[in-house]
Fold each of these.
Amino acid sequence: METASQTKNQITEGIIWKQLLIFFFPILIGTFFQQLYNTVDSVIVGQFVGKEALASVGGSAAQITSLIVGFFTGLSSGASVTIAHFVGAKNDSGANRGLHNAFAIALGGGLVITILGILLTPSMLAAMNTPAELMHDSILYLRIYFAGIIFNFIYNMGSSILRATGDSKRPLYYLAACCIVNIVLDMILVLVFHLGVAGVAIATFIAQVFSAVLVVIRLLRSDGLLKLSLQKIRFYGPLLKKQLKLGLPTGFESILFSITNIAILTALNSFGTDVIAAWSAYGKLDAIFWMVSTAFGISITTFVGQNYGAGKYDRVKKSTRVCLLINLAVSICLVVFLIFARTFLFSLFNRDPQVVQIGSDMLVLITPWYVIYVFIEVLAGALRGMGDVIVPVIITLAGICVLRIVWLIGALQISPTIPAIIFSYPVTWILTALAFIVYYFFRERRLKTT
């Protein structure tokens, strides 16, 4: 493999819209496969085990796993941004140190979360007002999930590093293989061995191990800046500090999102199993938008990171605008599709008419506002690529987390209804997007004088 200093870097030199899409689509398809194997879990238990199993897998348990994985994905962005800067500056040795430091973070963090997760699962579920009839299966699912979370961390860190160097295809191949393994095991363990919730949890565990092994083998067999050596995995003081400085705020930002989602689910839990099941199914459909938005966010972070590291500030600004326009166009199409196909889509998860109707109503309330969130995702990703993470976290904390909690408290006091609770999403998205737009333009003007 040629090193970064020997090859032409299309991200810093190629046609922006073309290279952005070439980089984006493998991430999107990979995210689709990642979401698909999570969705298959819900479809199989919802159709063949029951709505209680669907609520157990996709309710409180899903929010907890989203919080943990989201935090580590945000943390891994610190590694990807520093490596992207090294690649843009053609600093191969710095990128290699970043790789090994990042794997040390994944292994250490994974071990800690595994132990804490297994021990604290019952307390976390109880704190979320999880209905008594769902507790047993939810605890079982989460504990098996936490047992394999270190492999999830290894895969996410490894794929993040590959993308930071401009390789978005291999993470796609690994996720596709992982998805196939998970689907096959889901069908065998649930439909043949009748293991129910335990079956989908075990399938997820094995699939996570498989994806981690694939990405590690790839990095072990690579040459140049992507060469992983098990003996070199350790913490590099200054680099660790830099990666944590960039990654921790983004990780905590993800936690803030998850906490507000948990607060909303806690409020919805009081409405019963049908509402929880509907919300669980909606979460899988909602993920169609988030996987597109996340793919754009990852893409622009890498593009901005490498161009910022190379000192090409005009490309930083232009790539951000191009990414915004493309993401807006795609989001509008997704909104139209989800609204018109909502009844059919919900029936894929559960045929209970009440569950389908509740879920469809939720979808109509939220999805038209997805286009607003585009500004938050893309601008936050661009700022992250510049190494600016503190202010975006503050904006997120104030605009989404604090305001959403305040809204929920008020809604439960004034109008304790499902629409009043759910409408906290568009209100907070609008205000947060406005704040990001103002701050981004301020930050962009500073680039002209840098």
Amino acid sequence: MIQLSDHFDYKRLLRYTCPSVVMLVFTSIYGVVDGFFVSNYAGKTPFAAVNFIMPLLMILGCVGFMFGTGGGALIAITMGAGRMKKANELFSQIVFASAGCGILLAAFGFLFLRPVASMMGAEGRLLEDCLTYGRILLIAIPFYVLQYEFQCLFATAGKPKLGLYVTVAAGVTNILLDALFVAGFRWGLEGAAAATSISQFVGGIIPVFYFGRKNDSPLRLVRCGFDGGALLKVCINGSSELMSNISMSLVSMMYNVQLMKYVGENGVAAYGVLMYVGMIFSAVFIGYSVGAAPVVGYHYGAQNSEELKGLLKKSIVLVGIFAVCMFASGQLLSAPLSRMFVGYDKELFDMTVHAFTVFSFSFLFSGFAILGSSFFTALGDGLVSALISFLRTLVFQCLSVLIFPLFWQLDGIWFSIVAAEIMAVVVTVLFLFGKRKKYHY
């Protein structure tokens, strides 16, 4: 069994982070299943509706990443300092707080779903489909928050494989129910939403039962008091991942607005295919970063500078290898993947393939900013981590998607994604260089 205190060479680092990578990739794949079944069995407009409203739902659920990454880093540092009782109290408080937050967010979603969808430009059947899909998923938001959170905390607990098994269980549930509800019973959007909601319940509730009893991990749910300072630190430290996910969702909403303006529903549908594949590829970078973060946090807490330097160097090399492989895959698979989703419509298919070949260049750069943000989170520097995420997504992508189409029309929208990632890498390198003496990496 690999311990956080071990020396991590490439092989051990890959073995430790692999379950987190597979877990997040699998989560992304089963998230794509809704789109596949809806597009092929319900039609283009319901497919566009799923892509149109999903960013708002992801904003609500990604609060779990804030608690998971920010809390995981703080727990790992506390464990590295040998304070196990405090680590369990922090762990428990984080889980309880996130569950309560999920309930409040679900209520918020029910109030603002229609106004937000209308403000973004949805009307007629597209608007009604957005509301149908969104309202069913809002019921499961508290479990969605917990699912995201435990994807990070399983790695902190030294149980990344168990986290993978839970994710697979939730994913298989979604896939089987999608096939039954949408392809079998022909329930359309309602069936796809119900399948996803049930799978999120599975992914959120199983970890609660596991950590709620005695187990062979160093963490379990215990009685705890309220430590407002620690909870605030968790939120600040995890704000980068929260900001990153919120920003990505806001950017997706802005892209949808721009695409509705330039090409209508076809543009939203094409962008949906890009986002589905982008989610899977980005999940490799995020999964690796999430899996490595507890190791970084532990050795930083233990003041092991040599190990910290090795972890950063190895991580940069591995992310670079992943990036090249993903770019090549994107170029080779643009047509087959587009055909899988929208092969029934030639105009939409051609638009999607062209967009895909441009979008693939972003994979060469996106992983480095994701790694840099996660690395600073693991060091407890939530401010720098948040700045990288904020600039990468909300600033660079928003500016690009607003400015580029003025010169290059539809192509400007696709090119804007690549330009934003290049700028984010430059910022990440500057922060890593500027903070090297403070953290001794």
